[in-house]
Amino acid sequence: MIRRFAILLSIGLLLILAACGGTGNNASTANTQNEAAEASITAEEELTITATNYSFDQKTYHLKKGVPVKIVFKNESGNHGILIPELNLRLDGKDTSRVIIPDEAGTFEMTCAIMCGSGHSGMSAKVIVE
Hints:
By secondary structure, the protein is α+β, with helices and mostly antiparallel strands. 26% of the residues lie in helices and 34% in strands. A 5-stranded mixed β-sheet has the order 3-9-8-5-6, with no helix packed on it. A 4-stranded mixed β-sheet has the order 2-1-4-7, with no helix packed on it. β1 and β2 form a beta hairpin. The chain starts with a helix and ends with a strand. The model is unreliable at 24-37 (pLDDT under 50).
C-alpha cells in the first residue's frame, strides 16, 4: 500500500515538473528578433544619461519623434538603471546602450530600474519627445 502511494506520488511530481519546465523559447526568440532589428538601425543622435546616488545628471531629456537615437547609460556611483516603459527601454549595468526610435510625442517619466536604497523613490527624470 505504501509502495503504491510512493509510486503515484512520484508520477504526480514528474508530471508537475514536466508541465512547469517549459523552455520559454517564444520570449527568447522575440528578444533575439528585437536585438537584430536594433542592430540594423543607425542612430542619428546619441544621448548619454548619467546616474549617481539617487539622481540623474539632468531633470529633463529631449528626444525628437521618429529620429533614431542611441541611449547610453553611465553609472558613476551606486547601483542604478533606467526604466522608461512607454519607450520600451530598460538599461542597467549589463545592458548599457540601445538604439530606439521614439514614435510617440509626449512626456514620459524615467525612473531608476534597480532598488538602490533610501533615495530610490525620488530618483526620476522626464523624457520629452517632441
